[in-house]
Amino acid sequence: MRINTLALLIGACFPASLLAATQTVSVDEKFAQLEARLANAEARAAKAEAQIADLQQVQRPTAVSVESAEPVTAPAPKLTLSGYGDIRFYGDVEFNMDAASRSGSLTSMKTSANKDWAPSNNERWDINGRLLLGFDGYRRMDNGQFAGFSVQPLADLTGKMNLDDAAFFFGQENDWKIKVGRFEAYDMFPLNQDTFVEYSGNTANDLYSDGYGYIYMMKEGRGRSDSGGNFLLSKNLDNWYFEVNTLLENGSSLFVDKQYHGMTLDNDKNVAYVRPVIAWSSGRFSSALAMESNLVNNAYGYRDAAGQWVDQSDRTGYGLTMTWNGQKNDPDNGMVLNLNTAYLDASDETDFSAGFNGLWKNLELGYIYAHNEVDKFNTAGLNDDCDGDCWITDPGEYDIHTLHASYLIPNVMKMKNFNIYLGAYASWVDAHPTDGNNDTDSRYGGRVRFKYYF
């Protein structure tokens, strides 16, 4: 009775048609409807995410060019490298304040970094120097093979741009090496911490000034020429080091204004200097033996009064240097000692040089002796720059003596990359020409050098 009453109540509450539809919907159909709704929801979510990403892309800051004093939002600048090896950037500033008793030269030594400065009879007060920028690249493989380059532009106080080194090299570490370009080969006449005499030729050009003494330092075939390039082969073998440098250049560029023994030189073909070096080192001691020679005959010369060609390009030199470097084991109190000798057999002239210098703590002292024997000289052809102040005007023998000193003031203002050098020199010449007019004269000067590394 109760069940019949409940059925009547349910029938009254729901229409018969709805009850029939509910009974006809299966379970599978309900699952299909739910899956369709889920797919629609996922599609709407994906569309919303795409719209958000587009909005973020529009709002992201971009690099623009705006001519305005107001700051512009831009991404941080980047330095992109090729990834083929290590790159190093460095440099140094070297400025000098000079004072000299007389600027007229006794020798071919350049006592000024200013290449445009000409000899004269006046006292010299000078500020000169240069700023060097260096860029080096180096790549080493796992088997020890390597390749790299070096370039060093120079800006001097005369407003000119020059170049120190520009070289490419490759080889096997601690074994062999090939180097080509503009650079200096092995130093056969090291001068330690000197601030003056180093200007007696840091290049293979303008080493010989006609009418003045010549301090031969085995640099004619060393390199860093303004008129040619080097090709160098080197080899390491235990304590031994072997090097052969070849310099191809205009040979007359060795002489200032192409003047030699009062004659103007004509360049017929380039010279080829070959400069082999054999060095040995063990512990604190090292030594090196070398020669340099021009292999090209009749490269430059002049024509005599009869119109005959006179070859002046025959030049062969020999050198020996020995070094004791006590700073290897005792950097604070060790001494560095150099003994250098060089001999040149050239056309109508022979030159011998010997030098000794020592460095202890911050003080360097040195002495250089040079002996020139001139066999032939045309006084009538002397350059006007001599202005009556040239010393070698006749065949004969000439002795040049040079004392040089340098003192280092390190870490100025507690900066390890800022040093000041105090330098001084004194030179005198004893002239013994064949005409019997013996004479002696001297020069001296001082320098303050500011050296800053970066």
Verbal overview:
The protein is mainly beta and 454 residues long. 12% of the residues lie in helices and 46% in strands. It is built from three helices and 21 strands. Strands 1-2-3-4-5-6-7-11-12-15-16-17-18-19-20-21 form a 16-stranded antiparallel beta barrel. A three-stranded antiparallel sheet has the order 10-13-14, with no helix packed on it.
Largest sheet properties: 16 strands, antiparallel, barrel
**Mean pLDDT rating:** 84
Strand order of the largest sheet: 1-2-3-4-5-6-7-11-12-15-16-17-18-19-20-21
Q: What's the Cα radius of gyration? A: 40 Å
- Poorly predicted segments: 5-24, 58-64, 109-120
Order of helices and strands: HHHEEEEEEEEEEEEEEEEEEEEE
Strand composition percent: over 45%
Tally of contiguous helical segments:
3
Our measurement of the CA-to-CA distance between the termini, rounded to an integer number of angstroms, reads 110 Å
- Write down the overall geometry: elongated
The secondary-structure class comes to mainly beta
